[in-house]
Structure formats: structure tokens, C-alpha cells
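Page 42, continued from yesterday. The earlier attempt failed because a stray header line got pasted into the input along with the sequence. Redoing it now with the clean sequence only.
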Amino acid sequence: MRHLTIIILAICFAGNLVAQDKQAAAKPDTSKAIKFTVQFGPYKQGMPVLVDDMKRLLNADLKVTDNKGEVWTIVSYRLGYRKKDTNDDWKTGKRKTILVFNAVEVQNSPKIPAAWQKSMLESLQSGEEILFEQIIAQNSKTKKMMMPPSLTLSLR
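This time it went through. C-alpha cells are written below.
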């Protein structure tokens, strides 16, 4: 009976080792994972942007680069603009500053649309944000499409 218990324990232990090996084999190899850097002009996520600098850069390209240094083609993205505006507070009757969000879908271009560039040039202010969201980029060699992370630029 004692030998039978030892054999059963050995089989359970061996089965557990096989299960652990299968789990280890099922984990993705993150060393080959594609990591993206998204930037607009020289600006990347988390970098403060001066209003005057952004006005000079409005015609720059949105750029997506992977961890191998390859530049991906912009297929589409949603451009968002969180803009300051003034509004009458219906409770107090006083004017207050609010943020208004406008967005547009941009297809097959890494540039901000010309009409938006003109509007932003006239109205950009400190405390506003420009967002590049839902970006779809394509590798020019493999034609593989992926969604890199969003880019939010906060104006100072």
C-alpha cells in the first residue's frame, strides 16, 4: 500500500511538472513584441508643449515608429481638440471658462487637416489639449496594421 501511495504521488508530481511546462510554453515572447513611439513633430507623450511652438508645428506630421526603428504609415486617426471657451453659468449668471471638445476623423494623412490648422493657429491657448487617438498605422513592408497608443499634447 505504501508503494502505491508513493507511485501515485510521483505520477501527480510528474503531471504537475508537465502542466507547468505547458503554461510556460503558452506565455507570449515579449522580447519580440512591437512597441511604438508616437510623436507629433518633436513631441512625444508627456512632453509639455508651448503654445507658440505648437503654432509653428501645426503642419508637422504625426509619426509612428516601432522599436526596430521602422516608420509606419498613418492609415487613420481621430484628431481631438480640447479647447477653452467661455459660457454663461445658468445658476449664477456669471461667465466662466469651460473646455469644449471637437474631433474629426483623418484618413490617409499624417497631417492635421488644413481647416483645423487655420482654426488652431488663430485660437490655441495655454491649458488646451490636442489628442491623436484611435491611430491605425501600417508597416510598409509587411502591410500589417496595428493600433499604437494615443498621443495627448498639453499646451502651456
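Notes: The first helix runs from residue 2 to 26.
Reminder to self: strip header lines before submitting.
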